[in-house]
Amino acid sequence: MKKIIIMPMLLASFIVFSQEKIVTKSATITLEASVPSFQPVAGTNSNVTFVLNPATGEVASLALMKGFQFEMALMEEHFNENYMETDKYPKAIFRGQIEGFDIKNLTEDYKDYTIKGKLEVHGKSKDISADAKITRSGSRVTLISDFEINASDFNIPIPALIKYKLDNKVKIQIIAVLK
User: Fold this and answer.
1) Which residue from 96, 27, 10 is spatially nearest to 56, judged by alpha carbons?
2) Greatest CA span in the chain, whole angstroms?
3) pLDDT tens readout for residues 8-53
4) What are the distances in angstroms from CA 139 to CA 18, 22, 103, 104?
5) Which pTM value belongs to this model?
């Protein structure tokens, strides 16, 4: 008899205390490492998983490195084989916290936030801080973040032969529409 009463109470407590997360598997990351006067070096990955816990402001993102597409097939090949070594380091992971986040304060107008967390790329982890703009329309939350990283911070090799064509500062933009 005790088991009959305890089991529903236990399940109900899990439901009450579980935190509902909102997820998309179609967030977009664009990266650019272009140098003026040379061909643009930019890639886009539109199959990025992005998770937001609206109760806590915690975020997490996972991008498969082979998902980045470039204008030229040769750039994509060099990106995967020579720089990112995607067979050895297949993914980029970010885990962080949106500072001062409260989903109840979101409106259809973008609000500015700071996201702090740890980015893992090419087998290296680094703390980063990024500005973000976040809006909510109905049940849809949209997050846009722009920031820069240094390729050298993640031991991403840039050969001396092309150093003048490829910037060490990589501009990154994330757009996530969560429902």
Assistant:
1) 96
2) 78
3) 444 443 444 445 999 999 999 999 999 887 889 999 999 999 999 9
4) 19, 10, 11, 11
5) 0.86
